Amino acid sequence: MIRTKADLLEYIQEDKRMQPQPSSFVKRYLGTSGAVVRWKEYLRKCEYHHNVSKNIYHRLAYLVYLFLTKRYDRRFCSEIPINVFGKGLLIWHPERIIINPESKVGDYCALSSGVVIAQAHGECPTIGDHVELMIDSKVLGGITVADNVRIGASALVIKPIKEVDTTWAGVPAKKINNQGTVATPIPVCAY
Questions:
Q1: Mean pLDDT by groups of 10 residues along the chain of 191 residues
Q2: 155/138 Cα distance (integer angstroms)
Q3: Helix H segments across the chain?
Q4: pTM surpassing 0.70?
Q5: Which one of 72, 88, 92, 118 has the lowest number of neighbouring Cβ atoms within 10 Å?
Q6: b/e map of 51-71 (b: 16 or more CB within 10 Å)?
Q7: How many other β-carbons are positioned within 10 Å of the β-carbon of residue 190?
């Protein structure tokens, strides 16, 4: 959670480092990739001002960054609340991502289009570090997901995943192999 200015700078720097940047100037500033970087920066600044909120300046700054964040939420038809994700958030495809505000996700998480992290039976999931959620994957209920886990496309996770360095897929999700994510993933994609 972002509590200080140093935390804010670290989170923004790690988020930018994880997000692949297109080599084209036009795509970087007018395309989706540049918009995702700005969206995450506004999200982090919103978190900082919300968590500090000691005076009127922080409260006003929170409202401004909340407005800017919500504009990107509407643009991408997504809902990413504050104070859910750790540093190093990577968003491959920003469309239709729905996250419950009570969920907790660790550092260096990667999301794709259609990911849902939601409440079931009054409880929300807790997801570890270095977890990759592929297109249309869903994690529901008060379960925990271990570190370095990859959840495959269209998978439905409704039971806890306690094994690290594994890949899960299917409905409901089952372990398909013992190859999880890399400890500190570095995007290799350049547009």
A1: 91 89 74 84 94 90 95 94 93 93 94 94 93 94 93 94 92 86 54 43
A2: 6
A3: 5-18, 25-30, 32-52, 56-75
A4: yes
A5: 118
A6: bbeeeeeeeebbeebbebbee
A7: 9
